[in-house]
Amino acid sequence: MIVMKFGGSSVANGECIRRAAEIVQARLERKPVLVLSAMGDTTDHILAAAEKALHDGPHTVEPSLELITDIHLRALRDLKLAKSVPEHIRPLLAELASLLAGISLIRELTGKTRDFLVSFGERLSVRVFEMYLQSIGMNARACDAWEAGLLSDADFTQAELLDECYQSVPAAITPLVDAGVLPVVTGFIAKCRDGSITTLGRGGSDLTATFIAAACRAEEVQIWKDVDGIMTYDPRIIKTALPVSAISYEEAAELAFFGAQVLHPQAMLPCGKTGTPVIIKNSYKPSAAGTKISGHADGAPVRALASRSDVTLIDIVSVRMLGASGFLGEVFAAFARHKISVDMVATSEVSVSITLSSDNDLSLIKKELSRIANIEVKTKKAIVTIVCNIEKSSQILERAFGVCAKLGVQVQMISQGASKVNISFIVNDTQSEDVVRALHKEFFPPPQAH
Ligand code: ASP
Ligand code: MG
Questions:
Q1: Which ligand sits nearest to residue 188's alpha carbon?
Q2: Largest CB tally within 10 Å, which of 19, 147, 332, 396?
Q3: 336 and 283 in one domain?
């Protein structure tokens, strides 16, 4: 079997659904299991509806619901499946409406409620897609995550799938596939022990797909998106960016973590463990090769670039002459206590520089650390990441710093990722785009025109 995941933009409307269904139909002999995201921007719409209900009150519920209903109803009409909301979909929309009304009255929106709310996006999309697949003669069956054995912890909005899913998922899915059923599973969501609905974090459908593939020992997992694969950089910014044909699990994970918005950062873990290949494909251009993520990568020393803005850099310099272990121990214990997650770290015996995303509140930790260190916080920084073959790091660093020197850009911190596939450094936010453009030209020179 294979797992095929279609992201929100690949099932955004009737036309997209028809295209996605064609792609599935052409691969039926490989016994696909489908994983879907919510249609288009439904998740964002639901979250916006919740905020409105919370802050502006009950009168916002009806217009919000209309917008969400319309996305699904329009697709059903375009696909000639129904003129009004079908019987089995109506209860979901009614429940969503009651929930929004409840929020507008109680004026409270917890992570648990948020997860319950956004779950309707995926639950609606699998039902719409199921109807279309059935209408063209496929034996499709919509499955909510819990029917597919997906159980998680109760860490709402960021839940993790439980280890026992490695048994429960194949136990639920394999019999369906063996019976010739085409399961259409909700991505992104799960249930925890007490039966509450959870989500795996934004973009979590990738993880649902790779988990199912790994647990069921699928031949491969295909992630269908609206881009040609993992690109050397975001093609909206660098027009000459190229698809990367092959990349390793670690490299793909680093790229996702450092800002390439192609995959959920944790999505590589399950398939990395089992060695299941992950193929990124463009649903608008199914014949394009895409990117193959597996244990092996191709020969290019630099695979891709990524960047992330809105980064804060903190320099922490010991005021006592503590030995490195005592000092670093105290610093990191403080970050752990305040549940602030750190991205990059560079240390010497008496100082440590740390980067984190700018939305962390640093007031408490600053106060606490000021007892042992001088602290300087620098905002509006960016991380530029080069995902590369670290065995060639000296040459790559030389070229990268040559590029920065030519631009007159001061590099403020540098670190080599623990997974040994990336070099990351900090520059001012205002300079990062220039740096990335120049690096891209250096490592991926556009073909010379003749
Ligand atoms: N629909 C969810 C989101 O927009 C999950 C996903 O698309 O993977 O984040
Ligand atoms: Mg989405």
A1: 1
A2: 396
A3: no
